[in-house]
Specification:
Elements (H helix, E strand, L loop, with lengths): L17 H31 L1 E4 L1 H15 L4 H15 L6 H18 L5 H16 L7 H17 L12 H4 L10 H15 E4 L1 H4 L1 E2 L2 E2 H31 L5
Antiparallel strand pairs: 1-2, 3-4
Helix pairs in contact: 1-10, 2-3, 2-8, 3-4, 4-8, 5-6
């Protein structure tokens, strides 16, 4: 009786032929290269990184003690408000953090306003708040007009230039309720908020630019993709060469 055997059964972990063992070796080496290139770079970034504050944090750190003690002069109040806006301009902060910063900003604006204009400014901010609640399109002409009017007025109070991008969010972050005073609970939140958003881990790998890209971005988003395609090509070339040496044809 003729016996048959299945020569097509293969196991990556227990190769039974020379070509299978060679194939496994190549795959393991290529996966190791890819893993080292991918995860090794992230580990290296972690090892050499150091906390680096943004300029806005340095300004905040300088004036915050005076804000807490109530001895801040007008310039220090302006600098505190500007540093708060630096965080408020980031679109991924939480609602609680936004409320705390908005309270500090609104309070500082009213404190810096001339006494004869305080009531008018509170009224203008309150009027814009009501307009925002009833506006469903940011292209509404009345919304745009009142927003720009409030932005221009408060930018002068905070010494913000017309080209400062932070002024673009100024009007929508003001709160008439927040102008009544700087709540203690919000004051306690400010240091953690500022350090969270204005201190970043950096290194020479993140500061260095390559082909117009930050190097860490180029490496992760472009180089690793090219490397993966290159490893696939290398695998095909090595397997083809081995098959020719062993006389194997597809």
């Amino acid at each position: 009786m003729e016996t048959t055997s299945n020569d097509y059964q293969m196991s990556f972990f227990k190769p039974s032929t020379a070509i299978a063992r060679h194939n496994r070796g190549i795959v393991i080496w290529l996966v190791c290269i890819w893993a080292i290139a991918t995860f090794g770079f992230q580990i290296l970034l972690r090892v050499i990184q150091k906390p680096t504050p943004e300029p806005a944090y340095t300004v905040y750190e300088k004036v915050w003690p005076q804000i807490l003690s109530g001895t801040a002069n007008s310039v220090e109040m302006q600098e505190f408000a500007q540093s708060s806006l630096s965080v408020l301009a980031k679109n991924f902060i939480t609602s609680a953090e936004r409320e705390a910063l908005g309270n500090g900003l609104s309070w500082a604006v009213l404190e810096l306003s001339p006494d004869q204009q305080k009531t008018e400014i509170i009224s203008q901010v309150g009027s814009f708040e009501k307009l925002m609640e009833g506006t469903y399109s940011i292209t509404d002409p009345k919304y745009i007009s009142e927003k720009n009017e409030l932005r221009i007025r408060v930018s002068k109070i905070l010494a913000l230039s017309a080209f400062d991008v932070r002024s673009r969010v100024l009007a929508i972050e003001l709160s008439s309720k927040g102008m009544a005073g700087f709540a203690e609970a919000n004051k306690e939140m400010i240091p953690d908020i500022m350090s969270k958003y204005l201190i970043h881990n950096q290194s020479f790998l993140t500061d260095f630019s390559f082909l117009g890209f930050p190097f860490h971005y180029f490496y992760s988003a472009i180089f690793l993709l090219i490397l993966f395609v290159g490893l696939c090509l290398l695998y095909c070339i090595r397997i083809d060469r081995r098959n020719k040496l062993l006389g194997i044809q597809d």
